[in-house]
Write a structure and sequence with these properties.
This protein is α+β, with helices and mostly antiparallel strands. Helices cover 15% and strands 33% of the residues. It is globular and about 20 Å long. One of its GO terms (molecular function) is kinase activity.
Amino acid sequence: MDATNNLNDDFMIGSGGSGKIYKAELA
């Protein structure tokens, strides 16, 4: 996803089986 190009801890809301979960992935 283009929205996850600049991932950082500010967007990290948790962790999942495949790693960190970001708001962009849940949108």
